[in-house]
Design brief:
Length: 269
DNA sequence: TAAGTATGTTAAG
DNA sequence: TTAACCTACTTAC
């Protein structure tokens, strides 16, 4: 379930459950076993999220870098940890808390230099206070790639994924296939501001809700909608369904290997 | 039992 | 542009 908001929530949760405490670290599945033994019994001192990258800090120079990929999940609990079930790559246990990481694309122990390298390759993360949207704009304003492609490129903007991309483009009325260099500065500023507020909200509520109050099914006099990804959205995974605003059909096509959703009538700018 | 699906990234061609 | 790779769960046969 991983776009950037999930990763920021995980950083807070790992810190809340284990920060400043001695933790038992293991890898029941085995693939992280050698590295786990090197931080086993140490104190988890800090956690950081940069886009979709999660870092768990042990001492000044040892970091567990986690990237959930498309399947990765973390379960947390209190009290005695359950017997291992399935492929648990990273298990962390303190005296009264435990966590289990399954299915990450990456889980590795790295030094602060490698961590800095990873972070330096990322674009600004709208969820971070130190984000500089100007860096993203410098890339976008020169690029022939579509804005839809650019929004998913972690070197341009870090943390947005397929849902935030589809939803912010809808909310700004922007045709996803427009080239980055054809966007105006005002359009970019509005998009960044909107993306930031959508992502901030998602960190707080733990799901992606993007539908404005005036467009909810209730406000539009329509039956409430149950979405299996858990949030209220305008276009994501709503191919061929009615647009909440104009009631025309939502479009879908594949773009760079990912499904792109948009409303051709509302997104004409 | 097999196939299909998923909010992602990387490497090979 | 395509395939490979992480894992669990749902649906079809």
């Amino acid at each position: 379930m991983p776009e950037g908001h999930v990763v920021h929530r995980l950083a807070a949760r790992y810190l809340g459950s284990f920060g400043g405490r001695t933790v038992a670290v293991s890898s029941p599945q085995g693939r992280f076993a050698d590295s786990a033994s090197r931080v086993d019994g140490r104190v988890l001192e800090s956690t950081e999220a940069h886009g979709k990258q999660l870092f768990l800090g042990f001492g000044a120079d040892e970091w567990v870098r986690i990237h959930l990929g498309i399947y990765g999940k973390v379960a947390f609990g209190r009290g005695e940890p359950p017997a291992p079930v399935g492929a648990i790559r990273l298990r962390m246990v303190a005296d009264d808390a435990w966590s289990e990481l399954r299915g990450p694309a990456a889980c590795e122990l790295i030094g602060s230099g490698e961590k800095a390298d990873v972070v330096s390759r990322l674009g600004p993360d709208p969820l971070r206070a130190d984000a500089d949207p100007e860096r993203a704009w410098e890339r976008i304003r020169r690029s022939r790639s579509s804005i839809a492609t650019l929004l998913m490129d972690q070197h341009v903007i870090a943390g947005a994924g397929n849902i935030f991309r589809a939803e912010v483009l809808f909310r700004r009325g922007i045709d996803p296939l427009r080239a980055g260099r054809d966007l105006t500065r005002a359009e970019w500023d509005a998009m960044w501001t909107d993306l930031k507020s959508l992502m901030d909200n998602s960190v707080h509520v733990g799901r992606i809700d993007t539908v404005r109050p005036e467009h909810t099914p209730e406000a539009m006099g329509r039956p409430p909608r149950v979405d299996d990804h858990g949030g209220e959205v305008y276009v994501y995974r709503r191919a061929a369904q009615d647009c909440h605003v104009c009631r025309g059909p939502i479009s879908m096509r594949e773009l760079a290997g990912r499904n792109l959703f948009w409303c051709p009538s509302c997104q004409n700018r």
